[in-house]
Specification:
This protein folds into two domains: 129 residues, P-loop containing nucleotide triphosphate hydrolases (Rossmann fold, 3-Layer(aba) Sandwich); 72 residues, no CATH class. It contains eight helices and nine strands. β6, α5 and β7 form a beta-alpha-beta unit. The longest helix has 18 residues. It is globular.
């Protein structure tokens, strides 16, 4: 177990976005969280990385172990900063010389399929897929054990989605990562996940192995979610 969430609660006014949720994540797995918009998935992700503070409950995870990659790579990258400045943000808690920082940036850029020659360019000079690779590189430079990927491929076209998913599987092995993957695209989820947690109205109502959830869902809501997603995508 690398992360444990216990009885987590987060409300916004009268709306309880996360409602007594508990969850464990195992080292090295790909856990996908699915559910309709507004069910609390992104709120849960932000609670886990500390962008929001919970009302109740606990999150047991090693300090600094979590990093997050967001849906829109352009809005998550400062348009006024070069790639070099964006990546150097990740070193704020690391005591590295400028030479060590440069070497690490080159290593990670290579790992995500980019060149160190891009360090002095700005986000608007890149495609959407390249910007997402930069966002992934920034997360990797913080030496995480867990990456939370919040709709990280949903803003990309189908071919680029496949390239990014293939990249994520490669760097998972290379950097010994654990993934928490949030997505509406159940085709991607089926290809990518080891386990699936189904969220509804702030709660996890069903969790299990990928094939078990897709082939033998126990909850009516899960069956409806899968049917709607595949009927729409066919």
């Amino acid at each position: 177990m690398i992360l444990q969430v216990s009885n987590l609660v987060k409300s916004f006014g009268a709306v309880r976005a996360v409602d007594g949720l508990s969850l464990t994540v195992t080292q090295g797995e790909n856990l996908c969280i699915i559910g309709e918009s507004g069910c609390g998935k992104s709120t849960l992700a932000k609670l886990m990385v500390g962008l929001l503070k919970s009302d109740k409950g606990t999150i047991d995870v090693e300090k600094g172990a979590l990093q997050m990659v967001f849906q829109d790579p352009y809005s998550s990258l400062d348009p006024l900063w070069t790639v070099r400045s964006i990546l150097k943000e990740a070193f704020c808690r690391q005591k590295l010389s400028s030479g060590q920082q440069q070497a690490r940036m080159q290593e990670v850029l290579e790992a995500v399929g980019l060149s160190a020659q891009m360090l002095n360019r700005f986000p608007h000079e890149f495609s959407g897929g390249e910007r997402q690779r930069i966002a992934i590189a920034r997360a990797l430079l913080a030496n995480p054990k867990i990456l939370i990927l919040d709709e990280a491929v949903s803003s990309l076209d189908v071919l680029v989605q496949k390239q990014i998913i293939d990249l994520l599987m490669d760097i998972k092995r290379r950097f010994n990562l654990t993934y928490i993957f949030i997505s509406h695209n159940l085709r991607v989820v089926r290809r990518f996940s080891d386990r699936i947690a189904v969220m509804h109205q702030g709660k996890i109502i069903e969790i299990g192995a990928c094939d078990a959830i897709f082939d033998h869902p126990q909850q009516a809501y899960t069956r409806q979610l899968i049917k709607a997603a595949f009927d729409y995508q066919l």
